[in-house]
Amino acid sequence: MKQFPFLDLKLANAPIEQELKDAALKVISSGRYLRGEETQLLEQEIAQLCDTRFCVAVSNGLDALRLILRAYKELGLLRDGDAVIVPGNTFVASVLAVSDNALKPVMCDPRADTMNLDSDKALRLMERYDAKAIMPVHLYGTPCWDEQLMELARERNVLIIEDNAQAIGAKASVCGLNGTAMTGGLGHAAGISFYPTKNLGALGDAGAVTTNDEALASTVRALANYGCDRRYHNIMQGLNCRIDELQAAMLRVKLRHLADETTRRNRIALTYNQHICNPRVTTPVFFENMTQVWHQYVVRVSDRSRFMQYMADNGVGTDIHYETPAHLQPCYPALASEPLPMTETLAREVVSLPIAHPITESDAEKIAGIIYRFE
Ligand SMILES: Cc1ncc(COP(=O)(O)O)c(C=O)c1O
Fold it and tell me: Does pTM surpass 0.90?
C-alpha cells in the first residue's frame, strides 16, 4: 500500500540538501557564528518579503513575541497586568508570550469559517477588559486581518501584534496600518517562527520580529542581546535571544524557494478542496481575496479518532493542530474569562492532512479518494 507520511523533514529538505550543505560550509569556514553577514542579509530579505522597514532575527518564534511585548513595556506602551486579546485556538506559545510578560491574556473565541480571531468578539472583549493590545494569529497560513482590526489600531490606539508564525508570505484582503497587505506588516509588530516544520523552516530554532517602528526594532534588538545598546553597555536587563549565523544561512537558502513552496502548497490545498467529497468531512475555506499559504491543510471531522485511524489504516498520516487549547492546559487553570465554545469544538474536530513536500497533486487526489470511502 502506498504510504503518505504526514511530514518527513528529511524528504522535505532533500531537493535542496546540496545548497544547504554549501551554505553551512561557508559559515563554518567564515569563523563568524553570530551577528554576522548572514543574519544581516536575512533580516533585509525578510523585511522586504513582509514589506516592513525593520526585521530583527531572533532565536525562535516564542522569543520574537516575548521580545515585542517586553519592548512595548520598556517603551511604556504596556504595563504589568494590561489585557492582551489572544484567540482561543492558537498554539500555546502565543499565550505564553503574554503571560511571561506579566500581561493578562484574554482568550477570544474564533470564527468558524476562518478559524481565526473573531474581530467582533475581540472588540467586545477589548471594551470589557480595557485591553491595550490584540494578537491576531494567522493560523494555518490564513491571514487574520479586517477593517475592524484596522480601525482598532488606528482610532483606538490598540497595539496589534501579529503572530505570523505560520503565515510568512501570506497576503490579507485589506491593507494594514502601513499600506501593505503582507502578513507581518499589517499591524504594529509581528513575530515569525522558523521552526523546522514551518513553510520557511530552519534546521533548528529561529524566529524574527518585523515592524515599521524604529524604536520598537532597536529595543527588541537590544533586549535580544543582553539589553546592550553597544558592547558591554546594558541599558536594559535583557536576554540572549540571538539567531545563529548557521540558521540564518539555512533560511536564506530556503527563502529562495519559498515562493515555489507556497505555490505548491496552494495547488495541493486546491486539489484537496476540489476532490474531497464526503459529508462527514468539512474542508477549509478558500478566500479569493487573500493569499493563504497553507502551512496546514485542516479539515473538520466530528468522529475524529475513527477518521484518523481509518486514514492510518489506509497509509495516510494525519496530525492535530491543536488538540488541547491553552485554557484547558494544566499550566493555565484560570485562563478562560468567557466560554470558548468554538475553540473547544475546533479542538475536538480539526485534523491536518499531509501537504509538505513530497506530497503531490496526484497524491492529494488519491488521499481525497480514500476520504470519499470513509463511512
Ligand atoms: C501560532 C504559533 N505561535 C508561536 C509559535 C512559536 O514559535 P517557535 O516554535 O519558533 O517558538 C508557533 C510555532 O511553533 C506557532 O505555530
Answer: yes
